[in-house]
Specification:
about 350 residues, alpha/beta, Rossmann fold, seven-stranded parallel β-sheet, three-stranded mixed β-sheet, 12 helices, binds nicotinamide-adenine-dinucleotide
Length: about 350
């Protein structure tokens, strides 16, 4: 079995590659990644010498390059993680989000049609459903919830999801889609909430929280997401969407306070910054379908996962310090000032 994993030098894609190489030692995994600011080859250094692994630097929008790779590798399955993934950056400049997230997805699926595969899996997000009100804790996103996006990021992901379903209906492409809640864990790029707060705490820097920090997110440990995708590509029904979530809703402010507590830092580091434009209030996934059909359940409790994650960032300072000292510093200063 040969699997092309796009975006495998990013956060979830790299964790998925580690999971697959361990869970399926007879599989060949090809990582296709453009290595944008969010892709980091050093993340993959532990698997670079694995004979079942190959890294290819390539843009998913590069049709000739993608077709050439399919001709060389004859993949059975394609799992598409490659995306521009940061909401704030999509508000600054939506164009690259449309290019990679929508056009790139169509190029990959055209290659799948041309060369034949047994499964194309699109890694999507709960953000395609928009948000839920804070005062209705009884409401959850199901697979039937209409797409109702708020940001250029989520709109580009929803556009890709629609295209994936269209390729299934029109061309019979054997597709599946997973829509997952917020992930956390090792190798998470330090512009996202949890790693940003851990890194700033460790450097005694202010902890910038949007507005009052009352927005609620449903957090899932990345390994649980990777197991879900492994199950879907092997046992999920073609043409279906599966929601993946941990039933672990937390307010942003509570996450930040918890990180301060775990690292023994004062909450006075917290600074409230102007809220994100169009900021979604609450995301909450109903994962009943994947549980009933595929037997998936999250295995890592948040209390354990956050401890593991903090420990990882403490033990891998070189990984994130290199990132925050580079081009990312300019972006950070633009967003939050140089504090
Ligand atoms: P990430 O930003 O950490 O990684 C994205 C990777 O894609 C990077 O390695 C980058 O170099 C690569 N990439 C970007 N543009 C590319 C292109 N044109 N061609 C090839 N490679 C390209 O993202 P992530 O957090 O790991 O998210 C992965 C996927 O999961 C995304 O599709 C995202 O929408 C989805 N998702 C993320 C979360 C989350 O909490 N992080 C939750 C649900 C779904």
């Amino acid at each position: 079995m040969t699997i092309i994993v796009t975006g495998g030098a990013g956060f979830i894609g790299s964790n998925f590659i580690f999971h697959m190489l361990e869970a399926h030692p007879d599989y060949r995994i090809i990582c296709l990644d453009k290595l944008t600011y969010a892709g980091n080859l050093s993340t993959l250094k532990s698997v670079m010498d694995n004979p079942n692994f190959r890294f290819v630097k390539l843009d998913i929008c590069d049709r000739d390059g993608v077709y050439k790779l399919f001709e060389e590798e004859h993949p059975d399955i394609v799992v598409n993680f490659a995306a521009e993934s940061h909401v704030d950056r999509s508000i600054e400049d939506p164009s690259i989000f449309l290019q990679t997230n929508i056009i790139g997805t169509s190029v990959l699926m055209d290659a799948c049609r041309k060369y034949g595969i047994t499964r194309y899996h699109q890694v999507s997000t709960d953000e395609v459903y928009g948000d839920l009100p804070l005062d209705r804790p009884d409401l959850f996103f199901t697979e039937e919830t209409p797409l109702h996006t708020s940001s250029p990021y989520s709109s580009s992901k929803a556009g890709a999801d629609l295209l994936v379903m269209a390729y299934h209906r029109t061309f019979g492409l054997p597709v599946t889609i997973s829509r997952c809640s917020n992930n956390y864990g090792p190798y998470h790029f330090p512009e996202k909430l949890i790693p940003l707060m851990i890194a700033n705490c460790l450097n005694d820097k202010p902890l910038p929280v949007y507005g009052e920090g009352l927005n609620v997110r449903d957090w899932l440990y990345v390994e649980d997401h990777c197991r879900a995708i492994d199950l879907i590509i092997h046992k999920g029904r073609v043409g279906e969407v599966y929601n993946v979530g941990g039933h672990n809703e937390m307010r942003n402010i509570d996450i930040v306070k918890l990180i301060c507590k775990e690292l023994g830092k004062p909450e006075s580091l917290i600074t409230h910054v102007t809220d994100r434009k169009g900021h979604d209030m609450r995301y909450a996934i109903d994962p009943t379908k994947i549980h009933n059909e595929l037997g998936w359940l999250p295995e890592t409790k948040f209390a354990d996962g956050i401890k593991k994650t903090i420990k990882w960032y403490l033990e891998h300072r070189d990984w994130w310090e290199e990132i925050i000292s580079g081009e990312y510093q300019n972006y950070y200063e633009k967003m939050y000032g140089d504090g």
